[in-house]
Amino acid sequence: MPKLWTETIDAHRAAVRDAAMDAMAALVAERGLVAVTMSQIAEQAGIGRATLYKYFPDARAVLTAWHERQITAHLDQLTAAVDPSAPAIVRLEAVLHTYAHIQHHSARHHGGELATLLHRGEHVDRAQKRLRDFVQELIAEAVRDGHLRDDVAADELTTYCLHALTAAGAMPRPESIQRLVTVTLAGLTVHRP
Fold first, then answer.
1. Interatomic CA distance for residues 176 and 174, integer angstroms
2. How much of the chain exceeds pLDDT 90, in percent?
């Protein structure tokens, strides 16, 4: 098959998948999780039901694919928040701010029943591992630089940070998120007499 033809087919497949996932997200936001059918997804996406079934076996598969796409976008957002030339402590602070804002936004838009359903599965486990590894490496580097405490292991500090910042989902205002990140970072800081 010619390269141009292959690229066109791949682009078409990606467009169909994206349209189905976008339709699912819109329908869930409008009607709730239980009420969404494959027919509704196909209609909202502007594709035939038979075409939709070529890509996804059921509505839950569309939802899972959409969630995986969201998680990947969040991880990419965290990576993009970092200036690679900045010191580790500055990079860590940028990542923690971004993570807290993602938590805040996600709780506002994907809470309750939907969050419970979506936060299971291998794609979530893989994303959590990637996130933990990313934050842990920043913490370990900042410890080596002397900016963070070395009396607690980096993996424990990572767990502390990530769990503390999930509270951002319950924060009412952006300035509350800023204070939460400041307090979280203060818990990591080296305390010198």
1. 5
2. 46
